[in-house]
Design goal:
Organism: Absicoccus intestinalis
Helix content: 40-55%
Order of helices and strands: HHHHHHHHHEEEEEEHEHHEHEHEHH
CATH topology of the largest domain: Muramoyl-pentapeptide Carboxypeptidase, domain 2
Radius of gyration: 28 Å
Strand order of the largest sheet: 7-8-10-9
Largest sheet: 4 strands, antiparallel
Pfam family, one: VanY
InterPro entries: DD-CPase-like, VanY-like_core_dom, VanY/YodJ_core_dom, Zn_M74/Hedgehog-like
Protein name: M15 family metallopeptidase
Number of strands: 10
Number of helices: 16
CATH class of the largest domain: Alpha Beta
């Protein structure tokens, strides 16, 4: 029996006792951190970092972290994010290692929680409007994002625009009969909401729908040339970055009220509480300006589909926050 134990011990010594292989030990010793590493709480984390971008100066942090993925860990540590906060960040489902440098910079500046830091960066609150532009080429998901960072390609036009039945394009003598358009799915949902509103004595009408790329370009350029770029950016979206270009946004009013005052009239609360059942959200709500980068608009609805609309309604999320939590 003693001989068996002896041979087992010898085999363990030869193969290298402990959690590290001979090669890993050599790597740790070469970095001068084997003494700390052998007593680590999370040796698996150290091993993961060894197979990636291992930096010995962070050995204690590696030991303290429970790492499932090494993505962005060194960047966060290098950016001065405390180990406890790093752990909270990498544990979140909406953490993206590719954004680690921005997470670190935002945390250092704002000292917010891991949750708040990640959501702020995921929704581009750390960037200046129009400082980066990502082109959107797929429009099959009605909840896709178009804002001051995500743009439709030049000349984009939805392939399935349909005329809206319940409209009022305001003229000098009241409503005109100009045609407005939405994409087929959004249009169908809007008409269902209009029909339901009638049962509540609400005559909901569209006052604006789809706008072309060229229309928005002309609108922004005219105002920029007349009043300056800052003014144009404050009040008008740039071409390709207007939600109206998607064919999924509709401005509304009801019962002949001024569109920019509808929140003051009886019946608006029904719209707020029921639009999600038809797939719509209030795109630019109050107290969300830092997220949407637009002022409050009580009249601007966006079709995103029932599932996303329900989630946004229940969690009080903007569309940016919906995607920022993915």
């Amino acid at each position: 029996m003693k001989k068996v134990v002896f041979f087992i011990l010898c085999a363990l010594v030869l193969s290298g006792c402990g959690p590290y292989t001979k090669a890993e030990k050599a790597q740790l010793k070469a970095a001068g951190v084997y003494a700390q590493a052998k007593d680590c709480t999370h040796t698996d984390s150290v091993k993961k970092m060894l197979s990636g971008d291992f930096q010995g100066k962070y050995i204690q942090s590696y030991c303290d972290l429970d790492i499932s993925s090494t993505s962005g860990v060194n960047t966060l540590l290098k950016g001065g994010v405390p180990t406890k906060v790093v752990q909270a960040m990498i544990n979140r489902e909406n953490y993206h290692g590719s954004l680690a440098k921005r997470y670190a910079a935002y945390y250092k500046k704002q000292k917010t929680s891991a949750k708040q830091t990640i959501l702020a960066v995921n929704t581009n609150q750390d960037l200046e409007p129009y400082s980066k532009t990502i082109l959107v080429h797929k429009d099959t998901n009605p909840a896709y994002l178009v804002n001051k960072f995500y743009a439709l390609p030049e000349g984009y036009e939805p392939r399935d625009l349909k005329p809206i039945q319940s409209v009022c394009t305001v003229g000098d003598t009241g409503c005109n009969s100009d045609e407005l358009y939405l994409r087929k799915e959004a249009n169908t949902a809007f008409q269902k909401m209009v029909k339901a509103g009638k049962k509540e004595n609400l005559k909901i009408v569209a006052i604006s729908g789809y706008r072309s790329y060229d229309y928005q370009l002309n609108l922004w350029t005219t105002n920029a040339n007349t009043y300056g770029q800052d003014y144009a950016d404050a009040y008008f979206a740039r071409a390709g970055q207007s939600e109206h270009n998607t064919g999924l946004a509709v401005d509304i009013t009801f019962n002949d009220h001024p569109f920019n005052e509808i929140e003051n009239y009886k019946g608006y609360n029904w719209i707020l509480k029921n639009m999600h059942s038809y797939g719509f959200i209030l795109r630019y709500p109050k107290e969300k300006e830092k997220v949407t980068r637009y002022s409050y608009e009580s009249w601007h609805l966006r079709y995103v589909g029932k599932k996303v609309a329900k989630t946004c309604f229940e969690k009080n999320w903007t569309l940016e926050e919906y995607w920022g939590n993915q």
